[in-house]
Fold:
Amino acid sequence: MANHTILLVEDEVHLHDTLKLNLGIEGYEVTSAYDGPEALKQIENAAFDLIILDIMLPGIDGFSITEMVRLKNNQTPILILSAKNTTANKVQGLKIGADDYMTKPFNLEELLLRVSKLIQKTNRTIQVAPNDIYIFSGNTFNFNSLEAIAFSGEKIMLTKKEAMLLKLLIDNKNKVVSREHILQYVWGYNVFPNTRTIDNFILNFRKYFEKDARHPAHFISIRGVGYKFQD
Structure:
């Protein structure tokens, strides 16, 4: 576990110090930020294995930071901490790209367990075998380099989550994969599937890899259930 790096963004000094101490005891290297602008500066200048992010921050709130990070295709796992415990707030956080969401006050042991699971999950997803290449209908996916070359010749850099979703669908070729399974596998949480996050990923896949995106032959929607890949 040693040497995994965490950016801790929390403006409540007592809680920040407590979390930093306990994360350090667990063997993590912790970088601190106490407001939104400082958090963005740290994210811009360094790579982290996990971001622990409070919502109510001076300068820029945690939701805005999450959106900015994801817009730059930075797929570092984000664990949101929030005093807002409504379902709507939780769904909003997950919908804009957070990987997990905990409400204050929280159990410290549970937080440490979630931190460990998020980092383990990330490590598993990036440890793909060399030459892990899949070709179909003129499209080439290299899951090792996270690169794809479309039938048109366009080179596309996949995000980790795009690669994970593609791999999941390809590994289950000709089988229907439910939205719930996709959410659990790719994002690591269970939430009622009323978000268009998965739909937007599929629309992008069709735009890049289907010869006729309006009449897809490979990325098939199964109404009310999920999606199926066929080559």
Notes: Helices lie at 13-25, 36-45, 62-71, 87-95, 108-126, 160-171, 179-187, 197-209. The chain has two domains: 5-126, 133-229. The radius of gyration is 19 Å.
